[in-house]
C-alpha cells in the first residue's frame, strides 16, 4: 500500500466478497445467486436498450425503474430510491443516516458489510448477540441507539422475523431509523414495505441480485417515507448522479414487469430448498429453518472447514465463515439447480 494513503485508508478492513472462480465445471453454491438465468424479457430489454443512445447519459432519476417498483409495491415514486446494487444503497444509508453520537445496533452474526461501512464512515456500532437459536430477538433492540439495521431473513442464518416482530422494533425506537435489509425476503418472508406508510422511521432495502437473478447487472433499491428518500437522493447527487446505466434501468423495469418468471423462480428455489434441507438432515446435519435461498447448517461430527475443503476438491463451492466461534462449523449453502443440489448431496453422502 502506497505511503501516500492516509493511515485511515491503510487501516481499513474491506469486505471480502465470496469467491468468483473461473473454473469451467463448478457447482457454485457460495454467493447466493439465483440458480436460473434471468427472465428472457429482461435480456430482450437489455438488447433493445443497447443502441446508439448509449452515447447519452441515462436518466439520473431512473424514473422508469422507480415507477415500475412503485407500481409493484403500491407506493409512490418519491418513496423509492435506486442504486447500483443494494450495497451502494446501503453505503448511502450508512453515510448519512447513522452518524450519530449513539451506536448503531445490528446482530453480532449478520451481513459482514455493515461492519465494513462502519469502518469506512467512522460509525460507532454495537453488535447485539443472536439468541440461543441464532435468531434475532426484537426485545434486544431497545437500548439507546443511533439507528438499527438487520437483514430479514438474516444472513447468513436464513432465519426470518415476522412483521409483528419488526413492528415491535419500530415502535420501541420512534427516534431512530430502522433499516430492514430484505435481500432475501422473496424466498419466504413478507416485505416490511407494507409498513412504510405507518412508520416514518422505517427504510426497507431490496436487491434484484437474488430473487430476480440479476447479480451481474447491479440494481438495488430502498423504499421508505418520502422525507427519508429525499436525503438519499441528495447524497447520491453529491456522489454519482448516474448510478444506474441505461441497460440496468431497462433490465430492472423489465424484471418487475415479468411476474410469471419471478413467481416460477421463487417456487423452484423454495421447493429445492426444502428438498435439500431434508436430504441434509438425513445425513445428520443440523439445519436452521431458512426463509432465504440458502441453508445454514453444521454436522455434529465434522469440522466445517474440513467439509468445505473436501467439497471444494470435488468442484463444489460453499461458504464457510469460521467466525465467530459460535458458527465455527457452520456452512452456508446456496440452493442451486436440482442437478447441482443432487451432486452436493451425493458428495456429502460419500464424505460423511
Ligand atoms: N444485503 C445482504 C444481506 C446480502 O447478503 C447482500 C449480498 N451479498 C446484499 C445486501 C447486497 O446485494 P447487492 O449489492 O448485490 O444488491
User: Gyration radius, to the nearest Å?
Assistant: 20 Å
Number of domains: 2
Which geometry do the CA atoms define? Answer: globular
What is the strand arrangement across the widest sheet?
2-8-7-6-5
Query: What distance separates the N and C termini?
Result: 44 Å
Biggest sheet descriptor: 5 strands, mixed
Topology as a string of helices (H) and strands (E):
HEHHEHEHEEHEEEHHHEEHEEH
Q: Poorly predicted ranges (pLDDT <50, ≥5 residues)?
A: none
Helix content: 25-40%
Superfamily (CATH H level) name of the largest domain: Type I PLP-dependent aspartate aminotransferase-like (Major domain)
Any idea of the CATH class of the largest domain?
Answer: Alpha Beta
Protein architecture, described:
This protein is of the alpha/beta class and 352 residues long. It folds into two domains: 8-37 and 260-351, Aspartate Aminotransferase, domain 1, CATH 3.90.1150.10; 40-258, Aspartate Aminotransferase, domain 2. Helices cover 37% and strands 14% of the residues. The protein has eleven helices and twelve strands. The chain has helices at 7-11, 40-49, 63-73, 86-97, 113-121, 163-172, 226-237, 246-257, 259-282, 304-313, 338-351, and strands at 27-29, 80-83, 104-107, 125-128, 148-151, 178-181, 202-207, 220-224, 286-287, 294-298, 316-318, 331-334. The strands form four sheets. The protein has a five-stranded mixed beta sheet with strand order 2-8-7-6-5, with helices on both faces. It has a three-stranded antiparallel beta sheet with strand order 9-10-12. A two-stranded parallel ribbon has the order 1-11. The protein is globular. The protein binds 4'-deoxy-4'-aminopyridoxal-5'-phosphate. 4'-deoxy-4'-aminopyridoxal-5'-phosphate binds at residues 85-87, 111, 151, 155, 181, 183, 207, 209, 215, 220.
Amino acid at each position: 500500500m502506497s505511503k501516500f494513503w492516509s493511515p485511515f485508508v491503510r487501516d481499513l478492513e474491506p469486505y471480502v466478497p465470496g469467491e468468483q472462480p473461473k473454473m469451467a465445471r463448478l457447482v457454485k453454491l457460495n454467493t447466493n445467486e439465483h440458480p436460473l438465468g434471468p427472465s428472457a424479457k429482461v435480456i430482450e430489454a437489455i438488447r433493445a436498450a443497447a443502441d446508439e443512445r448509449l452515447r447519452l447519459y441515462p436518466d439520473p432519476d431512473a424514473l422508469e425503474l422507480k415507477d415500475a417498483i412503485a407500481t409493484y409495491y403500491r407506493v409512490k415514486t418519491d418513496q423509492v430510491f435506486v442504486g447500483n446494487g443494494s450495497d451502494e444503497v446501503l453505503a448511502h444509508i450508512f453515510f448519512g443516516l447513522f452518524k450519530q453520537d449513539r451506536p448503531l445496533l445490528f446482530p453480532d452474526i449478520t451481513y459482514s458489510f455493515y461492519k465494513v461501512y462502519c469502518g469506512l464512515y467512522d460509525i460507532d456500532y454495537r453488535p447485539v448477540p443472536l439468541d440461543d437459536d441464532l435468531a434475532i430477538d426484537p426485545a434486544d433492540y431497545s437500548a439507546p441507539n443511533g439507528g438499527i439495521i438487520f437483514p430479514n431473513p438474516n444472513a447468513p442464518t436464513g432465519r426470518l422475523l415476522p412483521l409483528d416482530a419488526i413492528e415491535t422494533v419500530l415502535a420501541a425506537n420512534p427516534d431512530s431509523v430502522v433499516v430492514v435489509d430484505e435481500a432475501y425476503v422473496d424466498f419466504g418472508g413478507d416485505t416490511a414495505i407494507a409498513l412504510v406508510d405507518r412508520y416514518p422511521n422505517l427504510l426497507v432495502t431490496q436487491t434484484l441480485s437474488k430473487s430476480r437473478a440479476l447479480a451481474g447487472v447491479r440494481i438495488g433499491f430502498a423504499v421508505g417515507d418520502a422525507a427519508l428518500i429525499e436525503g438519499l437522493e441528495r447524497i447520491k447527487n453529491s456522489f454519482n448522479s448516474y448510478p444506474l446505466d441505461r441497460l440496468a434501468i431497462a433490465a430492472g423495469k423489465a424484471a418487475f414487469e415479468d411476474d410469471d418468471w419471478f413467481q416460477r423462480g421463487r417456487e423452484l428455489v423454495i421447493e429445492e430448498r426444502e428438498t435439500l434441507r431434508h436430504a441434509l438432515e438425513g445425513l445428520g446435519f443440523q439445519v436452521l429453518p431458512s426463509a432465504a435461498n440458502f441453508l445454514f447448517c453444521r454436522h455434529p461430527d465434522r469440522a466445517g472447514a474440513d467439509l468445505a475443503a473436501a467439497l471444494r476438491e470435488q468442484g463444489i463451492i460453499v461458504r464457510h465463515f469460521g467466525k465467530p466461534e459460535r458458527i465455527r462449523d457452520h456452512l452456508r449453502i446456496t440452493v442451486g439447480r436440482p442437478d447441482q443440489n443432487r451432486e452436493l448431496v451425493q458428495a456429502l453422502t460419500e464424505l460423511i
